[in-house]
Amino acid sequence: QVQLVESGGGLVQAGGSLRLSCAASGRAFYTFPMGWFRQAPGKEREFVAALNIAGNAQNSQYYSESANGRFTVSRDDAKNTVYLKMNSLKPEDTAVYYCAGRISPKHSTDYDDYGFWGQGTQVTVSS
After folding, report:
1. What are φ and ψ of residue 35, in 5° steps?
2. What radius of gyration, in Å, describes the C-alpha atoms of the chain?
3. Alpha carbons 8 and 61: distance in angstroms, whole number
4. Which residue of 5, 12, 80, 86 could cross-link 16, Cys pair, CB 3.0 to 4.6 Å?
């Protein structure tokens, strides 16, 4: 079993930055690809970013079109933590942000492929 706890959300003005953290406990964190998703009121949960297993030959980062160029996903396996640094935030980034992990060699952009979820952290961007 894996427990995930997000933190770092809050209220920020448009153009500002936030860094979300997701701390993992339980099974070997370093074996999980990790993803970030978000859900705005009245909308479906959507993919934001994902990161393959550190040390994987690809060790790639993957982003949604809206996150590409503004957000950066990273992981620190020594701290069992994955991060999402968000720059140039826009009001449309307002949502509850969730981190997720999956038991697989590779990441996915589909939330159905992730078996472990955190409780979410609220991000609100004011205009």
Report:
1. -135, 160
2. 14
3. 21
4. 12
